[in-house]
Amino acid sequence: MPNHIGKASVREYLYVDTPRVRTLLAQLSFGLPEERKSERTRQWTASLTGLDGPQHDEGSREQEVRSLADLHVAMLEDAAEYAKMLLDVSDFSKKPKNWNRGRIHKALNPGSLIRITAPTSIIYPASFAASATALDSLSDDDTFSQDVGKIVRAMYGEHLTLRIYPCGEDDWEYQYSGVVSDPGGYLSGEKSVLFSRLGADPQMWTTVATVSRIPDRDHTPPTVRLEQVMTTLQQALENEEMSRRVLEKMIQESSRAMEGMGLSEAPTWPAVSVIPIAVYREVSPSALPPDLDSDD
């Protein structure tokens, strides 16, 4: 009698925001009936039932925690889809006209859950700064590495940047942009090797994220905005009208100008800012072509 075995579903997880996934899952999964759980989720749940058993060594336990975080992502997707709280925007985001005409911005709400499969880059700027410092150690002038380090620390800190290009990397402005802060330590010890694993070119990944911010179209050039800020500040000083309100307005407008110049992580229109929750890809088996053994 033939043995019918279902096709396995395997994912490679690059990142999981464990605390945020658990928070959302706790809210969404309360009313999720068992029959609405996907086969993948049921299989993973069954394979992880022994996690509460005897403790193993630290490395093994860390891997178990990561496996549980991966399972929680699948459970979150099941629960969010059942509650109609997860929108897949992969196809909708491929057309530049949907960005230019503001259709994407009208469809999305801040805080909502989205999923997108598209060319994706994850960059660790601090690693680049460290490499620049190492190169400068071979010369007598370390000015370059010091300047690079200052810029990286000011613009990125120790975080990773996520760039999703649904229209392709050439259409850079149409992107979902986010910062990977890794509050749960999922990438602990792995940040510095991401470049060697992924390279510089975007790869196809699926990202589950919450919409953080949908920027408005700014018709004021950033240089003009910055000049207006300086003029307002100078007038306030001359008239001795400096106040907290004036100072905060100056900070806000200066931040908008820096954003428009690309000197801050906040994206400018038409890009959309997101908070990455999970980044993964479906694993397909490698296969040799049938004519590989033929004589050439």
Write a short abstract of this structure.
By secondary structure, the protein is of the alpha+beta class.
Structural notes for this entry:
The protein is built from 10 helices and 7 strands. The chain has 296 residues and is α+β, with helices and mostly antiparallel strands. It has 2 domains: 11-49 and 57-215 and 266-282, no CATH class; 218-264. A 5-stranded mixed β-barrel has the order 3-4-5-7-6. Helix 1 crosses helix 3 (58-82), helix 2 (39-47) runs antiparallel to helix 3 (58-82) and helix 9 (222-238) runs antiparallel to helix 10. It starts with 10 loop residues before the first strand and ends in a 14-residue tail after the last strand. The relative contact order is 0.16. Mean pLDDT is 80; it is low at 1-5 and 51-59.
How far apart lie the N and C ends? Answer: 41 Å
Low-confidence stretches: 1-5, 51-59
Domains counted in the coordinates: how many?
2
Q: Strand tally, please?
A: 7
Major sheet: size, sense and barrel closure?
5 strands, mixed, barrel
Mean of residue pLDDT values:
80
- For this entry, what is the oligomeric state of its chains? single chain
Class by SSE composition: alpha+beta
- Based on Cα principal axes, name the global outline: globular
Write the H/E string, N to C: EHHHEHHEHHEEHEHHE
Give the neighbour order of strands across the main sheet.
3-4-5-7-6
Percentage beta strand: 15-25%
Counting DSSP H or I runs of 4 or more residues, the number of helices is 10
Helical content band: 40-55%
The whole-angstrom Rg is 24 Å
